[in-house]
Amino acid sequence: MSGGSKRSGLKLSAEEAAHLQRIRDSRTAPWREAQRARILLRYHSGETIAQIARAVGMTRKSVGKWIGKALIMGAAAALKDAYHRPKGPSIGDDAKAWVVHLACSKPKDLGYAAEVWTRSALARHVRTHAVEAGYPSLAKAAKATVQRILAEQPLHPEKIKYYLERRDPDFEIRMREILLVYLDVALQNHAGGALTPVVVTVSVDEKPGLQAIANTAPDLAPVPGEHTSIGRDHEYKRLGTCSILAALDLHNGHVTARVERRHRSREFVGLLKDLDSYYPAECKIRLILDNHSAHISKETQAFLATRPNRFQYVLTPKHGSWLNIVETLFGKMARTFLRKIRVQSWQELRDRILQGIAEINADPVVHRWKKFEALTTDETRVCFSETIY
Predict the structure, then answer these.
(1) pLDDT tens per residue, range 190-245
(2) Which residues touch 139 (CB under 8 Å, ≥6 apart)?
(3) CB 197 within 8 A of CB 283
(4) CA nearest to 66, candidates 20, 3, 4, 1
(5) pTM (2 decimals)?
(6) In whole angstroms, how far apart are CA 295 and each of 24, 172, 263, 284?
(7) What structural domains and CATH numbers belong to the chain?
(8) Among 155, 288, 319, 355, whose Cα sits 20 to 30 Å from the Cα of 88?
């Protein structure tokens, strides 16, 4: 070292030098770390402590402190401050546990009107009852203190995450039945090609409550250089609602659908009649559908009795509509021709929905189920064998 310094030189690997250079040149790294990186790089290049102190605007004692730490513990350790606490924590673990217990309780159970906590309300309750509960260290707890205690868990009592209680004791069994049907369809599609299968599987469901909404003023077309999007008046007029009854063929993607004002047994029977007339008489139509009352009503059963061995029901579990592939079709409709739709009459809405379905049928897409991990039990493997062979 120049100047006869008794300190050893700082040896850095190429990776360590590159890391220090990145910290030195960073605009997001803490200032103290960037400053210490400059000190270490200058010392590594051969500058004396006095020269470094003048260059970085620090005392020689401070510069020597970080260089000494780097020589003892390494350059990476010299960038960070050692953990230190001037005094012990005043809020003990038992006090924190009490705050967490309060956060896991509902405010209404403690005499408040609110359903969920806010940070301010929880902090106010903590301050009010801390001494009474035996935790005087929390008597002046601010909202930030409560926030730090909850963040250690982490815990968010101000949020609600919804779940669905499983109310069907036979959910697993019915789910496997649906998945076995999808597997059977996949095998039929792989083996049958363009031939109509003996058993045609159709996914059926309804999309109710679709609103017919009319503009009260005409839409404004986009104007290049002035208006980049369509202009639409905020006010609108409601013209009623409709229900889409759809049946999705899982073999070729064809959609059989009706648009009705109501969704009753007679409308569902109308869809069954459409399916009956569309498919060859020698085919059995296997329907995947939910437990809606219109599907199992006396009126529907009376119609099914007139067509024995024609329809076969496979019911999804309760609250298991996500197992019905036709939901993907409704999602496609919502993203395409139903998106931001405005009409001048209910009849126009019906016609445009049927036109959109006709466009889907002009270029059909086969909807497939690909997740069969639930079919893992020995009983299911037996069903596999029966289905395949």
Answers:
(1) 886 656 678 999 999 999 999 999 999 999 999 998 999 999 999 999 999 999 99
(2) 127, 130, 131
(3) yes
(4) 20
(5) 0.66
(6) 71, 22, 11, 18
(7) 2-78 (no CATH), 93-151 (no CATH), 171-388 (3.30.420.10)
(8) 155
